[in-house]
């Protein structure tokens, strides 16, 4: 028994995927009906899951091995030749750890939720299982099932615990995401059935498969539509501001921290790794779209009066750097994209959490109605300012390092001419100049002036211990990665070299 628990034979990943939804379903059987027991139970499950994720990665994962580790392969449905295949590598370990960390903090942030809290916390734990399953799947059909699995919880969280237009935003979300999933299913079945009498959905088999040029391009476009919706990439981004504007802030934390990153992960895992020739053809277009996205979203954000919609457009802008890094086809560019996935996961989560804590106090969402909040709530003002500085890529924070490495990725790319690189960097710099404009104006409208401070009989209370704990827990990795980015880069550098070998050495 000792050997089973201390070697790779123990099914760590299966337990990690199943544990949240299994124990989450027990919420409905708890005899106590109080919200306090439900909150503590859910927090305990999330913390236990985080420990279950961290332990095998610390003791059984080899950083210098680019191959799949902790693999599990069980035949699930014999008739369909369908396998339960799980495994992790340097590309998936970062998003999985991010998922565990962010979901645990999101459950702490959701403590003020009292309406039907059993269902709320069960849906959060169901999302947890679906997201871990997506990042650890080594079977294309299983990846599709896990991708779909977390859509229903998000839809219910939006439609039941959102703002006044929650049904509109939830419907828009499900139409975009479920509609695009048709392309994912078609692509998965196309790759699985190509060149074989029996369907083979194994990632390793598909990575070594070659396709006719026209077919590979068709597969690539189909997968690109799916991941462009989830990332989001313009013009398929319009569901995001509406969703963030109406969702409860703990749901926004999961959306900004994890859900958007699933799209970027899919671009690397499927488009880049399985379809290298098509990716080399489309990479210049990805860079063009990424540049347009940075400038468009940064230009649109100042016009948003809703605080959460302004932060949502900042997320769209920062996702442009991930797309550019993926399109650069260089070591630095792809490593910078992976670092930006982790970095923006923390920064976006922190901004939405603080926006939500502010709403809990003043019940206002429009910036025109705010002002003068710095004096009565100095802790929220301080933490909000720090996260805003991290978002505008202040040196010493994770956002600065990630965007700088993406810049180096463009400079060192072997695919583009020197003048093209200079033009790309110039336009990216314009987008980075626009970022402080909307973030600093947001801080000015919220915290400076005297509007709310002069209102009669208006009382404030500052961050409590729980809120401070969540804010500091998100802030520490941002500063840690900014000071020592190798903490994240060491996870992915060997896997990145293995992926790029398809482009330069075959």
From TrEMBL:
Gene Ontology biological-process entries: ATP synthesis coupled electron transport; electron transport coupled proton transport
Record flagged with keyword Transcription regulation: no
Assigned EC number: 7.1.1.-
Transmembrane segments: 12-30, 37-57, 90-111, 141-161, 173-197, 217-240, 252-270, 282-299, 311-329, 341-359, 380-410, 422-443, 468-485
Topology in the lipid bilayer: Multi-pass membrane protein
NADH:quinone oxidoreductase/Mrp antiporter transmembrane domain span: 137-424
Main location, first listed in the record: plastid
Subcellular location: Plastid, Chloroplast thylakoid membrane
Enzyme class per UniProt: translocase
Keyword NADP among UniProt keywords: yes
Reaction(s) this enzyme catalyzes, per UniProt: a plastoquinone + NADPH + (n+1) H(+)(in) = a plastoquinol + NADP(+) + n H(+)(out); a plastoquinone + NADH + (n+1) H(+)(in) = a plastoquinol + NAD(+) + n H(+)(out)
Keyword terms of this UniProt record: Chloroplast, Membrane, NAD, NADP, Plastid, Plastoquinone, Quinone, Thylakoid, Translocase, Transmembrane, Transmembrane helix
GO CC list: chloroplast thylakoid membrane
Domain of life the protein comes from: Eukaryota
GO molecular function: NADH dehydrogenase (ubiquinone) activity; NADH dehydrogenase activity; oxidoreductase activity, acting on NAD(P)H, quinone or similar compound as acceptor; ubiquinone binding
Family: Belongs to the complex I subunit 4 family.
The protein's name in its UniProt record: NAD(P)H-quinone oxidoreductase chain 4, chloroplastic
Organism: Begonia versicolor
